[in-house]
Amino acid sequence: MRYLLVEDNRELADAVINRLALDGHAVDHAPTLAAAEDCLASASYDLILLDVMLPDGDGREFLARKRAHLETPVIVLTARSQVSDRVGALDQGADDYITKPFDFSELEARCRAVLRRRGGSARNQIALGDVLFDPLAGTLSRDGVTLDLRNRELRLLEVFARHPGQILSKGQLMDRLFSYDAEVTENAIEVYVGRLRRRIDGIGLRIETVRGLGYRMETARP
Fold first, then answer.
1. For a tag on the chain, would you pick the N or C end, based on fewer CB atoms within 10 A?
2. Does domain 126-219 have CATH number 1.10.10.10?
3. Residue 81: helix, strand or coil by DSSP?
């Protein structure tokens, strides 16, 4: 998954980026609202982590302006603990909030919860035909057989799972898996798709190459 972190505290930003990277997430960092505007104009994100007090403005006002055409879920990061501040953030379009200082495990849990709600599910598991995919546990299960996935393979499968039956181009997959500063080419997508194909072979899923367009994941036919 690809996240946008809008946070001017470099130490905190680095800590968040490093923590999310351990689970294979790509994170772009914007230290100002102007930088966030540039990021949103050039990339698509699965989730935005938005600080309130930034050098060039209030994150809540920024969110209120963008919400009319911004569908990406947003978690507000705030040092303010007053109920009125939290209610205000939610009323201006935030999907959730977390108060600084926060525990990273709570941040990760809130990210998962927001993404579940956006996907219309109350559980971590995603049903892919008769295969059950759990992005949190990093597992695929079918007929009592469980397959473990980690990091980039896991996140690649999650992208496919959240876009069932859709053709995803190499560019779209790169956009979801890598941040701006990652030095990768489309060849990397071919490598990861090849690895994932080998991992899921025989468990009831397959990744089809659609010539000239990209890839599509389907339930394997018996």
1. C
2. yes
3. coil
End-to-end CA distance of the chain: 30
Domains 2-118 and 126-219 share a fold: no
Domain boundary assignment for the chain: 2-118, 126-219
Q: Residue 5: is it exposed, middle or buried by C-beta count within 10 angstroms (0-12/13-18/19+)?
A: buried
Strands 145-148 and 139-142: antiparallel
- CATH code of domain 2-118: 3.40.50.2300
Q: Tens-of-pLDDT digits for all 222 residues of the chain? A: 899 999 999 999 999 999 998 888 899 999 999 999 999 999 889 999 999 999 999 999 999 999 888 889 999 998 876 777 778 788 888 999 999 999 999 999 999 889 888 765 546 688 888 899 988 788 899 888 888 888 888 889 989 988 888 999 999 998 888 887 777 888 899 999 999 999 888 888 999 999 999 999 988 665
> In whole angstroms, what is the distance from residue 144 CA to residue 149 CA?
16
Would you put residue 36 in left (φ > 0), alpha (ψ -120 to 50) or beta? Answer: alpha
